[in-house]
Specification:
- The chain contains 15 helices and 22 strands.
- The strands form 6 sheets. Strands 1, 2, 3, 7, 8, 9, 10 and 19 form an 8-stranded mixed β-sheet that branches.
- The radius of gyration is 21 Å and the shape is globular.
- The protein is of the alpha/beta class and 481 residues long.
- The structure holds succinic acid.
- The site of succinic acid has 10 residues, from helix 7.
């Protein structure tokens, strides 16, 4: 194992929107950013299609966006966090434009705003039609490459060292070699957990690495049971990382349909995501083939949604003339490392931002397109806070072998069956028992166990956590419509 010099540094783990914004905000303070592979390659941010929500429309207001976020969160959002993050949305749009992000515009030159589920107003900024995350990442990566204070390493963090004074270093792997970095401030910006499931819209590598590191470091995790399932992932053979058919497609009038031609959502195709995911799941369980019918868009589909059109073409589907087969898939983790307004966890020096963090914005169910906004705002806040913190003297790092590598493969079937759209106590207990047996040798199983325990402990249905053994609070399309 090689050791870095005794120099203290800020370490950012993850090169998605949150990590890159933090690195830029910390400048000119030196930062080491650890990213597995080239920047942008593994980031879930790059897959974000629909866009970034911000209340910038003429008929819109922060109060309306706050109200929609609170309603989607099913009573479990932290109001102060919602008001702070949503309130910072319009200024973040300006910041991103300044950083070179090219959001789509109307012919008039004004920013184009789309509509997604449970938003009272069109407020979804998008780029290149349906490649919003990729465009934001492009601009941020360009900026980071031009920022001399940021050193990017192609490496994977495997352990965070702590002592009585908090974080003191990171153990990472690069090309099979372990090395250490002395660091008194570490930001987890590692994304979500979709890769723990058989069907997911996340990169397969998104298996909650940040949560595993945080657990080992003693950080408090909250709301782990709240996992959002997107109702319309492309139902491609083989499962794994499924391409998303953005909710923005339903925002443009597409509707869910089955093999009989019935529009089974009774007009509630844009109900909150948890409601639609449960309806699609139930319809498929009843033996139907669920599709998204976007034929209303005709040839406009390919210009409004070029990336999705290409995905469909690859699967042999022409959305202008054929319904698109869809299924629910794990999409976003509302739970995570409990953090304050500047991304601080309970462990001194350990910060988190983006999907790995639990800020209180999402409650039990995230409002569509609030996550890129949160990642940008909270990444920036954490970067500033870390740079503003007085450095501690470097401490000796323990000589320790890396923790075992996480392996999601033995967990996926159990996660999908027992921690999917619909859960019950017996299934959760079975899953927890299996995860407990694997946990000592597999950090991913230890995380899955914590998620199963959280789901068991919440005995009533709320938001994305639906218990078949309790009355779901919001399962009726009529109530939701
Ligand atoms: C989508 O485009 O449907 C996903 C957007 C999001 O999850 O926020």
């Amino acid at each position: 194992m090689s050791a870095d010099s005794g120099r203290q540094t800020i370490v950012i783990i993850g090169g998605g929107v949150a990590g890159l914004m933090a690195a830029l905000a910390a400048a000119p303070h030196p930062v080491t950013l650890l990213n597995a592979g080239p920047l942008g390659a593994q980031a879930a941010s790059a897959w974000a299609q629909g866009g970034m929500a911000a209340a910038i429309g003429e008929e819109d207001s922060t109060a309306l966006h706050v109200a929609d976020t609170l309603a989607a969160g099913a009573g479990l959002c932290d109001r102060a966090a919602v008001e702070r993050i949503i309130g910072a949305g319009p200024a973040m749009v300006e910041t991103l434009l300044r950083l070179g992000v090219r959001f789509d515009r109307k012919a008039s030159g004004a920013l184009a705003l789309g509509l997604e589920a449970a938003h009272a107003r069109p407020r979804i900024l998008h780029a290149n039609g349906d490649a919003t995350g990729a465009e934001i990442l492009r601009a941020l990566i360009e900026r980071v490459r031009a920022t001399p204070s940021v050193t990017v390493l192609d490496a994977t963090a495997r352990q965070i060292f702590t002592d009585d004074a908090g974080v003191c270093g990171v153990l990472a792997m690069r090309g099979g070699e372990a090395f250490t970095l002395a660091a008194d401030r570490v930001l987890l910006a590692t994304g979500g957990i979709g890769g723990l499931f058989r069907y997911s819209t996340n990169p397969q590598g998104a298996i909650g690495q940040g949560l595993m590191l945080a657990m080992q470091a003693g950080a408090v995790l909250r709301d782990l049971e709240f996992i959002q399932f997107h109702p319309t992932a492309l139902d491609a053979p083989g499962g794994g990382a499924l391409p998303l058919i953005s909710e923005a497609v339903r925002g443009e009038g597409a509707r869910l349909i089955d093999e009989t031609g019935a529009y089974f959502m009774q007009g509630a195709d844009l109900a909150p995501r948890d409601v639609v995911a449960r309806a699609v799941f139930a319809h498929a369980q009843a033996g139907h083939h669920v599709c998204l019918d976007a034929r209303n868009l005709g040839p406009r589909f390919a210009t409004r949604f070029p990336r999705i059109a290409a995905i469909c073409a690859e699967a042999g589907i022409d959305p202008a003339t054929q319904p698109i087969p869809v299924r629910p898939a794990a999409h976003y983790h509302m739970g995570g490392v409990a953090v304050d307004a500047e991304g601080r966890s309970n462990v001194a020096g350990l910060f988190a931002a983006g999907e790995v963090a639990r800020t209180g914005l999402h409650g039990a169910n995230r409002l569509a397109s609030n996550s890129l906004l949160e990642a940008a705002i909270c990444g920036e806040a954490a970067g500033r806070a870390m740079a503003g913190q007085v450095a501690k003297p470097a401490r000796a790092l323990p000589a320790r072998a890396p923790a075992p590598a996480p392996d999601a493969a033995p967990l996926r079937a159990l996660m999908s069956v027992h921690l999917g759209v619909l859960r019950d106590a017996a299934g959760l207990r079975d899953a927890a028992e299996a995860f407990a047996a694997l946990a000592p040798a597999n950090p991913a199983a230890a995380l899955a166990l914590r998620i199963a325990q959280a789901a068991l402990a919440r005995e009533t249905s709320v938001g994305a956590h639906a218990r078949a053994d309790s009355a779901p609070l919001r399962n009726s399309l009529h109530k939701a419509a």
